[in-house]
Each structure stands twice: as C-alpha cells, then as structure tokens.
C-alpha cells in the first residue's frame, strides 16, 4: 500500500475543509441534483442552522421526486466523523470519499474530502484554486449559477 500524504495533519479536524458548500433544510432533491451537476461534488450537506441534518449522495436520489425534502433523501450513519478522530485510522476505514465532520452535538464543522488518488485529503486552498480555474474557464467547463439555497460559509 502506498503511504498517504496528510500534509502533517494527524486528526480529521486538522485535515477537513472548513467552508464546505451546504444546503439549508428547505432544499429539495431537485436542488441536490443541480448541485451534483458539478462532478467534483460527491455529497450534499443539508443543515438547519449549524446542525447537520443529512448527508446526501448521488445513489440516494434514485427514484425520488425532485420536490422531496433533501434531508429525507440522505442519512448520517456511516457518513460522519468526529474532529478528534485519528486521521490515519479514518483514512484506512473510509468506504466513501466524503465524510461530514461533526461535533458531539451534531454541529457541522467541515468536510473530510479524500482526493481522487486516495492518498490524501483536499485542502481549502485546493478547492479555492479549482474554483478560480473554473471561473476563468481554463478547465472544468463553464461556470454555472448555484441554486439559491447553497452557501459556502465558514462554520
């Protein structure tokens, strides 16, 4: 097995993205589908205030009507990690590329985002650089307007 590059991080909280895109509790399955048009988006985080209600992944949407509340489409079980969790142990146990990071009260703190290579985690700087590239039209296709209920605010 190739050794991972965690950029010096030892806990999930040290490696997580700190400002993931979120959908508010009123979001619909149709809005999640629109979010998933970006192939870099692997999970939709549905929140009420700062509390994580649901993590929705593409397969969750199969057969569901666009009008259904997004929070009813996903789940939390198996899709969240604690910020103090050991990063190497979490990496070894990951069966998906995204894990929401929540505290003991269920407050969303960030998103652990495994790189496509599987050898490390996306950083806030990586995400910002990709967004700049997309905005410039250099790669990733044309920019799209995000649904109105999506925000990327620090948590």
Determine the N-to-C terminus distance: 34 Å
| Relative strand content | 15-25%
CATH domain topology: CBS-domain
Our count of domains comes out at: 1
SSE topology sketch:
Layout: H1 12-15, E1 22-24, H2 29-35, E2 44-48, E3 51-56, E4 80-81, H3 87-93, E5 98-102, E6 108-113, H4 124-136, E7 150-151
Structure description:
The chain is α/β, with parallel strands linked by helices. The protein has one domain: CBS-domain, CATH 3.10.580.10. The protein contains four helices and seven strands, in the order αβαβββαββαβ. The chain has helices at residues 12-15, 29-35, 87-93, 124-136; strands at residues 22-24, 44-48, 51-56, 80-81, 98-102, 108-113, 150-151. The strands form two sheets. Strands 3-2-1-7 form a four-stranded mixed β-sheet, with no helix packed on it. It has a three-stranded mixed β-sheet with strand order 4-5-6. Helix 2 links the parallel strand 1 and strand 2. The radius of gyration is 15 Å and the shape is globular.
Offer a quick outline of the entry.
The chain is of the alpha/beta class and 155 residues long. The chain is built from 4 helices and 7 strands.
């Amino acid at each position: 097995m190739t050794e991972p590059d965690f950029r010096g991080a030892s806990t999930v909280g040290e490696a997580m993205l700190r400002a993931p895109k979120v959908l508010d509790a009123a979001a619909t399955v149709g809005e999640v589908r629109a979010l998933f048009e970006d192939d870099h988006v692997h999970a939709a985080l549905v929140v009420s205030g700062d509390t994580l209600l649901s993590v929705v992944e593409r397969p969750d949407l199969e057969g569901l009507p666009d009008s259904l509340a997004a929070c009813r489409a996903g789940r939390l079980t198996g899709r969240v990690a604690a910020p103090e969790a050991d990063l190497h142990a979490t990496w070894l146990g990951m069966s998906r590329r995204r894990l929401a990071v929540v505290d003991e009260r269920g407050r969303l703190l960030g998103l652990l985002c495994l790189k496509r290579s599987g050898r490390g985690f996306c950083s806030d700087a990586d995400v910002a650089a990709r967004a700049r590239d997309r905005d410039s039209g250099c790669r990733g296709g044309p920019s799209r307007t995000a649904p109105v209920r999506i925000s990327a605010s620090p948590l």
